[in-house]
Specification:
By secondary structure, this protein is of the alpha+beta class. The protein has a domain of about 80 residues: hypothetical protein PF0899 fold (2-Layer Sandwich), CATH 3.30.2320. The strands form two sheets. Strands 2-1-6 form a three-stranded mixed sheet. Strand 3 and strand 4 form a beta hairpin. The chain is elongated. The mean pLDDT is about 95.
Length: about 110
């Protein structure tokens, strides 16, 4: 379950941000998880709730959204949505592509006080 180590990194980043801002509490965090990240949002949420039971993260609300992945085929230039790493170009069937998003976890917003 790599969600646990990802959650630890997230908590470390949020605590560092809170210190940097002189905040005592992190109220809300908005994440965007790419569909190609192989991260289960509910597993990440479960880990976050377990790790953030006390301190500045105790009352933090975690909002999680999904980011779609777009690709551009290197062979024919077709742009299409990618749902997994094995997706092929719907026009020519090639696997070679340039990805545009959907393969990262992004902290979109953080509310602290």
């Amino acid at each position: 379950m790599h969600e646990l180590s990802l959650c630890q990194q997230l908590c470390d980043q949020l605590l560092a941000l809170a210190r940097q801002e002189g905040a005592h509490c992190v109220h809300e965090v908005e994440l965007e998880i790419g569909v190609l990240c192989c991260v289960e949002p509910e597993a990440l949420r479960f880990c976050f709730e377990a790790m953030a039971k006390s301190g500045p993260l105790a009352a933090t609300r975690l909002r999680v959204g999904r980011a779609l992945a777009q690709a551009e085929c290197e062979a024919c230039g077709c742009r299409y949505e990618v749902t997994d790493w094995l997706s092929v170009c719907p026009r020519c069937g090639q696997r070679w592509r340039h990805l545009a998003g959907g393969d990262a976890i992004i902290i979109k917003a953080v509310e602290v006080s």
